[in-house]
Amino acid sequence: MHLTQRSFKLLATSAAVILLAGCASLTPEVLSQQEIEAQSQADLQKRMAEIAPIGSAITIEEAIARALKYNLDHRAKSLEMALASGQLEAGKFDMMPRLLANAGYFTRDSDLVRRSQDINGNTYDNRYVSSERNHATQDLTLSWSLLDFGASYYSAKQNADRLLIATERRRKSMHTLIQNVRTTYWRALAAQSLSQRVSGAIVDAETALKDSRGMQAAKVRSPAESLRFQRTLLDNLRQLEALQRELTTAKVELASLIGATPGTRLTLTEPTDAEPQSLGISLEAMETQALTRNADLREARYNVRIAANDTRKAIIKLMPGISFDYGTRRDDDRFLVDQHWQEAGMRVSLNLFNLLSAPSQKRAAEAAESVMQARRMALQMTVFTQVHLSWHQYDDAVRQYQRAYAIADVDSQLALIAGAQEQSQMAGRLDRISSDVISILSVARRYQSMARVQEALSRVQSTLGLEPEVGSLDELDLPTLQKTMDQSLKNWNLQMQTKPAPQARRSVGQNQTESQT
After folding, report:
1. Which of 248, 410, 435, 510 could staple 415 via S-S, CB 3.0–4.6 A?
2. What is the pLDDT of residues 430-448, one digit of tens each?
3. pTM score, two decimals?
4. Cross-strand pairs, 330
């Protein structure tokens, strides 16, 4: 059914008015406080529903598994990889021919009237109508350009390399996250082990300080002796309060890393096999593995391939464009003898100005490829440096831990002696408090040294490109991921051919138990 000329004008005018009214009504809409609160509450509830409940105690393997599965920053890297995968799939369709379907409707307020003229220029007044006032058209055209196919082919290869780059960035994010969890876990263990002792020592020192000021006011001791006593107590309090501030933030940071809400009460399990291990792998073997596994170096290699394909795309775009078209068309104009027909054609096009810009475009593309190659070579030397630095840093961290372990062992025994002497009135209260504070600080340094050992070890593994072999984190439940992490930690030790480092002769934990007894 055809539209009349008047109806068509009315329809076009109405559409224009509606479009203008819609454009005029576009104004910024500020979110209300209620909408923000409702959205925040919905996001929080959705987030909490995705997180498995935390049990009675968390091991370091479970902490790493929870971080990999629930940490939002790491999930963002996973989503970037999914986005790159989608772009690769979508880019494959750019190599296919284009299949265009068109439909149209045409109308005019008067007939299309034509005159005839012979080859001698004589015009005849036998007018005739050559087209209907209202008619509809449909066509389906298959078009394929050889130039577009070549450019799309190399673009698809670049998208494939970008997907691999996203994978390497996800690996690097995994390395960083595991390193942060292992370091923060030991700091949180220090907070769990020492919080009560620190609080008790602060109360004890403040009580002694109050008593000393009372004795000074009563002039039981000389002013100089009382002030020296108070100065020592104040210095002990300053150190204890600084340690307390550091311990307070450790569990909050760990909760953030594993995806738990801040303020969640965490009970941590201290690993029984946590003694640091000396690296048994040679520097040459580490360099070889880093060349093939390092995430940054792999990303640089893929960037070189992307730059090389950019050069090929630049060369292809300088070539003539060849396109092929085939289509079927229909027009319901009754004046046409054939209302349905098929067309085929081939076109060759060339931008002649490309002949002038071709040398400069080629040089620019090759220069970009050379830059990427230079960056890759520079990064390779950087990775070599990282290998040597991480090896020395880990070796130094192990030595510092052993030293801190021995110092904590000695300070613990001195605290036992000072406590016994105070009970037998062979020593004063200040000696016992100072010895206890020194012992607490030594144990804290021992935990801090272990945290640095874990940080250095994670840096070695990151440089060598060692990470747990996990697929989609959404498809793995938490217990399975935890088992995978447990096995991965064991495999890393085997792969690096580690051997136990010399241990201290006595456990600090045993000394602390005796001290509390």
Report:
1. 435
2. 778 888 888 999 999 999 9
3. 0.78
4. 138, 340
